[in-house]
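Margin note from the TA: students keep mixing up input and output lines. Inputs are the sequences; the output is the structure of the whole complex. Example:
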Amino acid sequence: MTVLADERELRDDALNGLELATRLERLWRTPSGLLGALMSVDHKVIGRRYIVTAFAFLLLGGALAILMRIQLAGPEQTFLSPDKYNQIFTMHGSTMMFLFAVPVMEAFAVYLVPLMVGTRNIAFPRLNAFSYWMFLFGGCFLWISFLLNVGPDVGWFAYVPLSSLQYTPTKRPDVWAQMITFTEVAALAVSVEIVVTVFKLRAPGMTLDRIPLFVWAMLVTSFLVMFAMPSIMVASTSLILDRLVNTRFYDPSSGGHPLLWQHLFWFFGHPEVYIIFIPGTGMVSMILGTFARRPVIGYPVVILSLIATGFLSFGLWVHHMFVTGLPQLGAGLFTASSMLIAVPSGLQIFCWLATLWDGRPVYRTPLLFVIGFIVVFVLGGLSGVMVASVPIDTQVHDTYFVVAHFHYVLIGGAVFPLIGAVYYWFPKITGRMLSETLGRWNFWLALIGFNVAFFPMHILGLIGMPRRVYTYTADMDWAHLNLVSSGGAVVFAISFAILLANVIYSLRRGALAGDNPWDASTLEWATSSPPPPQNFDRIPVVKHRDPLWFDNESLPVVAGLSIERREVLLTSLAEAEPQTREASPEPSVWPLITAIATTIFFVGSIFTPWAVLWGTPPMAVALIGWFWPSGSREDEE
Amino acid sequence: MPVRIRTALVTLVTLPLAACEGRQSALAPQGLQSDQILRTLLLFLAVAAVVWTAVVIALGIGLLRRKRMPERPLALHQDFEKATGRVVFALGFATLVIVLGLSIVSYAGQRTVFAKDDNALTLKIIGHQWWWEVRYEDDSPDRSFVTANEIRIPTGKAVKVELESADVIHSFWVPSLTGKMDLITGQKNELQFTARNAGVYRGQCAEFCGLQHAHMAVAVLALSPDEFGRWRDHENQSASSPTDVLGKQGEQLFRARGCALCHNIRGTLAGGQLGPDLTHVGSRTTVAAGTLPLTPATLGAWIADPQHIKPGNYMPRMPLQSGELIAILHYLEQLK
C-alpha cells in the first residue's frame, strides 16, 4: 500500500461540494485548443467522436444503398455501370459492417460502460484514443480509395479466386483487406479496454449479478471480438500475401484451396453478426427496464442467454457454405446448431415480453423503437430458421431472400435498438432532450419504410432473383416488387433524415434534460448531463442491481482517491471489493502519432513489401514516446 | 401434411404471385427435388408464421392489458416473478422442441433432395466468366460433344451434373428443378435433378463472379425422352457445311476475322477453345448466356458490339464491315 508515501497528497475526502468538483474537473478535463483535442484520453470525448464518425459512415453507406435501389427500381437500367455497381454494393456492405455496425456499438460502450460501472475513465485510455484514430484513418482510407475509383469491387466477403491477383489485378481488393486490418486493430483495442474496465474498474459493491445488462452484453461482445477477429486477420493477411508476395494460400494449382478462405471468413463472419446483435439486446434490456417501469424479468436468464449465444455463434459458420459441396451429414448437423441459437434468443424475447406484460409502459420514442425491434427482429429470426435448413438454403442462398433475412436481423436486431438508444442516451450525452414529435415521425417512417423496402425481397428471392446483380432483364417479372422496395427504401431514408434533423435541432433548442430525465435506475444517470470530465465527484457504492431506484434519495459513495493526480479505484473481479488505487494516464498526443505511423505502414504495405521494413521504425519511435516514463510517483515507486 | 391442405397452402402463398410464376422460381417447381424443397419450405413457413403471430399477439396483449396501479418500480410481486419464470422456461423448452423437430424434418428433406440415382444421365458443366460450358460425355468418345449455355435433358430421368470452374467460383441454379450448387475452382461438385414435365427452365449464376455476374443465365430444356434422343444424335454431329455463296463467305470470314481464335465449330478449321462452342449455335434460344433471345437481329447486334450489350465481357469488338457481318451472321444462323 502507498498510504504512507502519500501523506501530503490531497484526497477527495478533504474537500466537499463545489470545491471538490472544480478540483476534479481541472484534473480530468481535456486540454483546450486543437492540440488539446488531439490529446484527449477522456472516454466521453472519444466515445462521442466514435459515435459521430460511425453515424457519418451510416449516412454514406445508406446513400450507397439508395443508389443501388435507384439502379434496381426497373429492369435493364443504366443509371450505374456494372463496375460502379459492384464497387457500390461492396462498399455498402463493408461500410455498414466494418465502419458502422461494429464501431457504433463499441462507441456506445466506450461512452457508457465507464459511467455504468461507476468509474472515472475507461481502462487503457490512451489505447482507446489510438483505437479511435485507427478506425477513423481506416474508414477514410477506404472511402478516399472509393472516390479515387479504387473502391473494392469483390463483395464484402471478397471470395477467392475472384479477389486473387489473377482475376482482379487492381489495388481494389488490397484496399478492402487492409481496411479490415485497420478496423481489427481498433476493435481489438476497444474489446480489451471493455473487458478490463468491466472486470477491474467497477464501483465497490457492483457484484457480478449487479452489472447492468448493457455492460454484460458488451462484455460478451468483447470476448466474441477477441476470438473472432484473429480468424479474419489470418484470412485477410494471407490474401494480401497471396496478392503481394506470391504466396499460394488460396491457389488450388499449388495446393491451396478457395474454401480455406470461406471457412476462415465465416468463422469470423458469423460471430460478427452477434458482435452487432448482442450489444443491441443490451440496449433493449436497458430501455425496456426504464420504460416498462420495472426491472427486466429474468436477469440471470438474459445473461446466460447472452453467453450461450456467444458460444453457439462460433459453431454455425458452415451454414454460409451449404452449397459448396460439403458432406451431407455434416451440413445437417450445422442445420441443427444454427437453429439452436433460436433458444437463447427466444428466451431473451420471452423475458422482454414478460417485462412488458407486467410493466406499466411509458410510450416514449425509445420504447417505440424497442417494440419495433421485437416485431421486426422476430421475423428476421424466423426467416433465419428457414435459411438454416439445408434443402431450403439450396434455393434461397445468395438470393434476395437472404438479403431480406439479414436486413431484418441486423436492422431489426441492431439498428432499431440503436436508434432507440440514441433517443434514450442523447440527453445524457448532450444535456438536451430530442424532440418527441420528430421521434414519433422517425419511428413510424422507419418501421413502414423498412418493411416496405425489405419484405418484398423475401418474395423476390423465392421467385428467382439472385443477389449482387447490377440489373435484370425485363422478362423476369421482378420489376414491380423491386419498384415497391425502392420506394420503401426512400421512406426509410427519410426517417434517418428526420433523426439527423432532430439531433441538429435538439442540440441547440432541445429541452434541458437534467441528471435523470427518464427516472432510470443505472449509474450513468447518477451524474450530471453531460457528465463532468471526472464522471463522478465521488465513486458510488452499489448495493442493488438498480441502484438509483433502490437509493432514490442519495447514492452512497466511497472516498479516498487522489485529487492531485488522475486515479481510479480497482475492485475485485467477482465481488467488486475495493483493492487498490491505480493511476490513470494523462492526455497525450502519442496515440495519434502512433496511429499515423501505423497508417503509413498499413497503406504502404499494400504497394510494396518493403513498407514492412521502413514502416516499423516510425511506429517504434511513436510507441517509445507513448510509454516514456512521465516521472509520476507511481512510476518511481 | 394432407395433400389438400398442402395444395391450399401452395395456392395461398402463390396466389398473389400468379403473375410472377415465371420460369425461374422456387415457388413453381417442375422437378422432383424442387417439389421436395417447396414442401419443406412451406412447412417451415407455416411454423414461422404461427410463431411470429403468437409473439406479436403476446406483445400486443402485454402492452394493452390493464395494469395494476402505478407504484415504485422495485415493488415486485414475488408470486408473479416466480410464475413468469416458469412460463419463460416452458416457452424456451418449447422453442428447443420446435427447432429440433424442424432439424429432423430438414434432414429428411435433405436426404430426398440429395438422393443419388446411379443410372442418371451424366453431363459436365464448367463455369466461365460469364458463360456455361456444357459437356455431354459418353463411354465412347465419338458420342461425346460440347455445347454452351443451354442444356437439354430428358423428362422423367435423373440427370447428374458434374460442376467445375475454369476461373472463379460460380453457382449453378435452376430453381424450378432443384436448389443450387457451387462450381468451385479446384474442386468437383455434383448435383442431381429430375424434370417432371417438358418445358424451358431458366437458371442463373448465383455466386458473385465479377463484372457480368448479372448476365450469366442458363436455359434447361426438358424434352420427352424420344425427342431428347433425336436431339442428342443431331447435336453429336459436326456442323454442316454451308451450301450458298454467302454462307461459304461467312465461314471463311469466321476464320479470317479472328472469331475462330476463341470459338470452336466442329468439323471446320475453327478450333478456338476460349469462348463457347458454336457448332450448333443456330439452334439455341438465347445470345450471350441468356442476355437476349436469339434472333438474327440480336445475334447481329451482339457480334457487332458485344461490349455494348454485356459491358466487360471477354468477347472483343471485331472490326467488321457491314457486308462481312451479314455473311458471318448468315453462316452462324445456318449452324442448326
